[in-house]
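Handoff note, outgoing to incoming analyst
You'll be picking up this chain. Sequence as last confirmed:
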Amino acid sequence: MIYQLLYPLSQKFGWGALNVLRYTPFRAIMAVITAMILSFMLAPWFIRTLQGKQIKQVIRKDGPESHFSKAGTPTMGGALILLSCLLPTLLWADMTNRFVLATAGVTAGYGIIGYLDDRLKITGKSSRGLPGRYKILGQVLIGGLVLGYLFFGPEQPLDWVEIRYRLAVPFVAFDKHPISLPAWVYLPFALFVLVGMSNAVNLTDGLDGLAIGPVMINAAAYGVWAYVAGSVLFGQPLAAYLDIAGLKDMAELSVFASAVIGSGIGFLWYNTYPAQVFMGDVGSLALGGGLGMMAILTKTELLSVILGGIFVIETLSVITQVVSFKLFGRRVFLMAPIHHHFEKKGWPEPRIIVRFWIISILLALIALSSLKVR
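Most recent structure output, in case you need it:
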């Protein structure tokens, strides 16, 4: 909004000070700052409101005993994350950019699904919430509509048409070794990445600050990747020099990624151990959807397995536990997802959280190294 309203004035009236709005890094920095300020300003009121309305976390009876003391902690704090993320995006990003619109749309839509899930948990005083099949159905419908707009909507940019069904293999040159998939193969795959990432973040959100740390780390990596993939240096696209998938519209995603980081920092101030507020599904499903969209739009779908390794490990631990119990009647882990396994082994909660953050940082660095190592 600020970009659309004020930048044209700098061109029309020669207001040089406003010319800074043309630079994506400046607007990305402003998005971080705006998101942090919103979080810090609104969080105390927001937490008091949740407490007053008795919107409190329902604790699993079969969970670790250390979690029983968390009963009554306000939940649905993800609503604050969404506000602090989407509003700065609206203010500082180019909202005519279809990539930004699509990513913000999925984030908001998945947030609504998460809200319904949280409300059902609270009103039903149960940890079950929205049945899984309805949750997946909603994610598929929203994701399918947005992907349909991106891939079949009007006025498709030619550079996007050229790469939209192509798959980038990590550490392999994008143009020298192209992999193009038929639309009927790629689109279900993209939808799987989107829904899978959303639910993987949701599964990771089980300890104070555990999910929001890797979310911010992943957002930062996607933001760097998007900016590099959409930038021009000395008249040459950086994407062509690095031999990665890239086009001009990608750079604007770094503004959205920055807003995610800023809102995450503000939320972490109150969510760090011991948490004053929990994220809830309204936050985890939405943020996971946003990360999934950035992976699809920057053509880093396969790389996201490395970058989002923490989310992948958490998801695989649940799948392994369920399959093992159904087939062999045995549990591989003391409890799934895997962060609860370490709790059962006696690890203090802060130790698990920080170690998972460290692993996430390492994986992000490995993923970013593929910009050049190929």
